[in-house]
Amino acid sequence: MLTDTHAHLDFYDDLDPVLIAAQAAGISTILAIGIGDGPATMHRALDIARSRSTPKLRLYATAGIHPQEAHQATPESLAKLTTLAADPLILAIGEIGLDYYHADNPDIDTQQSAFRAQMRIAAAAHKPIILHCRTSELATPQAKARYGQADAAQDLLTLLESDWAPTQLPFVLHCFSGTQADANRALAIGGYLSFAGNLTYPKAVTIQQVAAAAPADRILVETDAPFLAPIPLRGQQNHPANVAHTAAYLATLRNTPPGDIAAQTTANFRTLFSLKTEN
After folding, report:
1. What is the largest CA-CA distance in the chain?
2. Over the stretch 29-50, which tens digit does the pLDDT of each residue have?
């Protein structure tokens, strides 16, 4: 059975067929990411997990303030996040992090302040964090002009090393798209690498090399649905069922049977979030 470690279930207008297809594809667990359309709606993933989870398709949730909404990390929003973090169905705080990809994103200080505040909330709740980070190398020209030489990935890893590593709690680099050096730094302080549909793209050679060599007990698979549909569905709306394509591609990269990848990544998910093994 497969686990989709990262899906935005609250972004679908009609969730029923999405969940039915996921179960038919052998998906046993989905982690619904709770960023909503901003802090005011970051509870929606938890509402879905509460109302739609079944013994055959377990749904869990996260809550967090995305770096693009870092300017909305007000005392009121952070208080709401603290309350959500206490719910047992909330497995992690996220997705949070840094994003210097678009010129209209909040400034660096605002993003880093919001990131630190949410790390503190996660640490107090004793829960992992799910991290968003877009490489600055691919940023728009306008963003490069605004953010200068700052690199989101390096800033993120530095903050993790200084502020998160002392907690000894794990974290997930969602939709990993960094280098081997980035992966090594993350793995050294308890990180997990989650691979999404872009792993299957022909130009994703560096990501593929990292995925092939990563420790077996630190890999996860995800869809980031409804975004980032894998080959052969690239360009279409993505669905949790499609995590099977990414898992199969990862199995090929690692010269491992697909069933073993499914079992390993699901076991890793349960270890990461201290979930009991299900029969």
Report:
1. 53
2. 999 999 999 999 999 999 999 9
